Amino acid sequence: MKRIIFLFILAVFAFAACKTTKQAAQSEYTTDPTVQPKVFSVPASGTETATKTVEKVVDEKPIAIRREQVTFTQQEDRSKNESNTFFVIIGSFSQLDNAKNYRGTLLNEGFTPIILHSETGYYRVCVDSFKNENEARGRVTKLRQTFPKYSDVWLLIKE
Asked: The domain 65-158: what is its CATH number?
């Protein structure tokens, strides 16, 4: 009888010790849904009443940046963009055919995309390139505002 009680208590402890707690995955790239966007008021111009305010919501996603060595897949793209350092990347593919198909889609939408081959083996589809980082960041912001479906654009810095 003592053995049965001992085995029962041992089993209870074994099952109690196996409990796990589930936690949400933590990543520096995910946003916390409980954080509200920053809102601030801007005073109205002098001709309007001072009690009137304009609210502006600041909800800008940070711009991802990567440094890579890249080569151009077409010679004419190389001659036009070789001196530029900052590239606005709108797509990344492991297969060249997929990158070319996406390039065709972007051409139909009015972009002039080029394809870069990265040192990592990926084919990066670029829609603009710049010598100045601020201009490149401005283009990323403008793309995100104008084309919400391309909200995941990012900057590649050529090494």
From this structure: 3.30.70.1070
